[in-house]
């Protein structure tokens, strides 16, 4: 494992360990974060720990043309129950991603430092949110980084059934219209697998990344 210093630089992703951890330390400045995503690397660590930088093999991704929408979700999409927006409530989305309970996750990795870093990226035009609203209340959403034709998903939340799926499906369809060809989901979840995400090798991921940044 490599220890980062003040230099904005990462080792080759092939040097990550079996878990996918590549490096430790550094900072969450916008320049380093953007370099990380462009290099196939993302930060993931618990509050109070040093920053860990990951590049797992295999990688969990969704190709928008392989999005799966069940009949029940298509009904939700068509019935007008939820309202969909983009970049209308970024700070609320990331706060809810931090606090709303998820079955597959113990605690939260979204610390105040993470919130500040990604809010800065949002203000710079690199981080984006998608929202689901019900009767004027934010009930689901997601956020991530957009670079070129790749969207790097970071986290999502849902306060009521189907709200995050609604926001995700609507956003994937919008991204596809805008030419996005890959959505990085980072690590496996059953929730995203049900929507069409699948594992690919890191080598394939890096090839797609290089072609579409």
Structural commentary:
With 213 residues, the protein is an alpha+beta fold. The chain is 32% helix and 27% strand. It folds into 2 domains: 2-56, Leucyl/phenylalanyl-tRNA-protein transferase, N-terminal domain (Alpha-Beta Plaits); 60-212, Aminopeptidase (3-Layer(aba) Sandwich), CATH 3.40.630.70. A 7-stranded mixed sheet has the order 6-7-8-9-10-5-11, with helices on both faces. Strands 1-2-4-3 form a 4-stranded mixed sheet, with helices on one face. A hairpin with a 2-residue loop joins β8 (137-147) and β9 (150-158). 36% of the residues are buried. The mean pLDDT is 95.
Question: Concise description?
Answer:
The chain has 213 residues and is α+β, with helices and mostly antiparallel strands.
Share of helical residues:
25-40%
What is the CATH class designation of the largest domain? Alpha Beta
Low-confidence stretches: none
CATH homologous group name of the largest domain = Leucyl/phenylalanyl-tRNA-protein transferase, C-terminal domain
Q: Total domains, how many?
A: 2
Sheet/helix structural class: alpha+beta
**Number of helical regions:** 7
How does the overall form come out from the CA principal axes? globular
- Biggest sheet features: 7 strands, mixed
Q: Let me know the number of strands.
A: 11
**Rg over alpha carbons:** 17 Å
List the strand order in the largest sheet: 6-7-8-9-10-5-11
CATH-defined architecture of the largest domain: 3-Layer(aba) Sandwich
Distance between the termini: 27 Å
Please give the structural blueprint.
Elements lengths: L1 E3 L16 E5 L4 H9 L3 E2 L8 E3 L4 E4 L8 H8 L4 E4 L3 H10 L12 H12 L3 E8 L2 E11 L2 E9 L4 H15 L4 E5 L3 H4 L4 E3 L1 H11 L1
Parallel strand pairs: 1-2, 9-10
Antiparallel strand pairs: 2-4, 3-4, 5-10, 5-11, 6-7, 7-8, 8-9
């Amino acid at each position: 494992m490599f220890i980062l210093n003040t230099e904005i630089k990462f080792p080759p992703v092939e040097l990550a360990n079996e878990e996918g951890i590549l490096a430790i330390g550094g900072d969450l400045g916008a320049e380093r974060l953007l370099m990380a995503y462009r290099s196939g690397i993302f930060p993931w660590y618990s509050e109070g720990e040093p920053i860990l930088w990951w590049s797992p093999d295999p990688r969990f991704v969704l190709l928008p043309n392989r999005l799966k929408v069940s009949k029940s979700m298509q009904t939700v999409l068509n019935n007008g129950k939820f309202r969909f927006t983009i970049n209308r409530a970024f700070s609320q989305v990331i706060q809810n991603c931090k606090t709303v309970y998820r079955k597959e996750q113990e605690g939260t990795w979204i610390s105040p430092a993470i919130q500040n870093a990604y809010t800065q990226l949002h203000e710079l035009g690199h981080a984006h949110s998608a929202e689901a609203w019900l009767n004027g209340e934010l009930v689901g959403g997601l956020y991530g980084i957009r670079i070129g034709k790749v969207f790097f998903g970071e986290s999502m939340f849902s306060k009521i059934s189907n709200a995050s799926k609604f926001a995700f499906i609507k956003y994937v369809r919008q991204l596809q219209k805008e030419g996005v060809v890959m959505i990085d989901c980072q690590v496996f979840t059953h929730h995203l697998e049900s929507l069409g995400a699948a594992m690919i090798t890191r080598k394939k991921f890096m090839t797609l990344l290089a072609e579409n940044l």
